[in-house]
Amino acid sequence: MIYKKINLKLIYFIGILSICSIFNFNVTIASNTNSHNDLKYDEEIITDEEFNAGKIIVEHIIDAHEWHIADIGHTHISIPLPVILLYNGKLDVFCSSKFHHRHSSYKGYKIETEGENKGKIVRVIGESMETDKKAKLPLDLSITKNVLALFISMFLICWIFISIARTYKKRKGMAPKGLQSFLEPLILFIRDDVAIPSIGEKKYERYMPFLLTLFFFILFNNLLGLVPFFPGGANITGNLAITGVLALFTFIIITFSGNKNYWVHIFNTPGVPWWMKIPVPLMPIVEIMGVFTKPFVLMIRLFANITAGHIITLGFISLIFIFGEVHVGLGLGVSVVSVAFGIFMTILELLVAFIQAYVFTLLSALYFGMATEEHH
Amino acid sequence: MELVQPGIGLLFWMTFSFAIVMLILKKYAWKPIMKGLKERENSIDEALHAADKAKEEMKQLKFSNKQLLKEAKEERDAILRNARKVRDAIVDEAKLKANEEANRIVERAKDSIQYEKMAAVTDLKNQLASLSIEIAEKILKEELSAKDKQKDFIKKMIDEIQFN
């Protein structure tokens, strides 16, 4: 019964998701956004340039200093975010709306619009818009779109799991209920099918907090990334900084929990002829490379999977506008196919969201298991 | 290129917030959740175990009930048998006693009959004797009415005494 219900909800959810992903692309959240005070309106003239799918797609999946929500006519609707800069020991904090969508500089800073530093905040000469090529880049600790999305998802995760924990305390020994019964299978799955088989009955408990946090962080952000409008839509798990930090945590935990057996295995691999270790330490070099490639691959896998999914979905939607530029009718015709493929991709992405969260967690658990394995 | 350049700010905030969230969740979420799960699993295990035990106990109880019933039946039979035996013994004894008593009564009756008979006979004898004496007296009176006859009789008596 419960599963049926969840199934229905899931289908419903996917449906909404797909519909939203279609509408979000260019013009949405129309009338009611007017009442929001935190939204910033900027009247400006967007030149009727040609539709550039590549540019738009990249803009949708990278980080930004403002949270772009929609364009209505020639109006950008976006949430301005705080900019925090450290330059020569001087701290500058101001609102990103001061940049006027990359059109002006403020306090000697601007957002670079071209070149290798495109998208980054750079120094300008005086009050002009000219980039100061000699000045080094300021340390940018701004609350960007991804940072805000990160905070939102972190808050969501904390809120959900702390409330669930309270339910566990309140309903001791009783059957799970509500949200608890929805997430408990996942928690049990991580414990019984990921942690215990990979790390072992004796030591798994130490790693559970990390593995659970990791799994739910990736899962929640993968799913939130599929929601096309605020507070979802930020491509967090498809960002190298995020996946890199996750992989770094895994790497640090592996390194610190590695026992003697693990290090012996790296520096003096058993079962390998001696001439592969002395005088040229071939095996140790390979093994040490392995130590770093493991988390590196974790980082790349999650990033690539999520980013690829987003790019393909956006690509399908872009087709509508590419053909629409040729002829409106053609655009409408293609939209049927594009929407169908978009829905298909979103459903696939939903699956990928689970799979990637699972794979990252499982591999981390396996590496922990390898690091703590006793000699046998 | 922007796509594969990790932002320093994002790196910083991610490291910072992930570490904090992990610590918060560890303390306020995962620990109670894992504990709750374990407790529930244990309680379910215990409940199942207890149910098994109860089943086993029920079985044993059933068995012992049967045993008890059997024993009770046997005991009842034994008691009944005993009672029958006792009853028989009592009846036998009573019969014996009654017989003896009857015999004694008969004996006594016989004795008393004998005695009565003897008394009657003695009485009869005495009466007969006194009657005989009376008769003899009367006869003697009749016979010794004459003087000469009295003399003869005395003479005879004296003779008799002399001979003795």
Number of strands of chain B: 0
Beta content of chain B: under 5%
> What is the percent of helical residues of chain A?
55-70%
Number of individual domains of chain A: 2
Q: What's the number of helices of chain B? A: 2
What series of H and E elements makes up the topology of chain A? HEHEEEEEEEHHHHHHH
Rough outline of chain A: globular
* End-to-end C-alpha gap of chain A: 46 Å
Rg for CA atoms of chain A:
24 Å
Label the structural class of chain B: mainly alpha
Shape of chain B: rod-shaped
Strand order, biggest sheet of chain A? 1-3-2
Which whole number gives the mean pLDDT of chain B? Answer: 89
Largest Cβ-defined interface: A-B, 52 and 36 residues
N-C termini distance of chain B: 192 Å
Run of helices and strands of chain B: HH
As a whole number of angstroms, the C-alpha radius of gyration of chain B is 64 Å
The oligomeric state of the chains shown is: heterodimer
Count of alpha/pi helices of chain A: 9
Mean pLDDT of chain A: 83
Any overview of this molecule?
- The complex is a heterodimer of chains A (376) and B (164).
- With 376 residues, chain A is mainly alpha-helical.
- Chain A is 58% helix and 10% strand.
- Chain A has a three-stranded antiparallel β-sheet, with no helix packed on it.
- In chain A, strand 4 (82-87) and strand 5 (90-95) form a beta hairpin.
- In chain A, helix 4 crosses helix 9 (328-372).
- The longest helix of chain A is centred in the C-terminal third of the chain and has 45 residues, at 282-326.
- Chain A starts with a helix and ends with a helix.
- The termini of chain B are far apart.
- Chain B has two helices and no strands.
- Chain B is an all-alpha fold.
- At the A-B interface, strand 8, helix 3, helix 4, helix 5 and helix 6 of A face helix 1 of B.
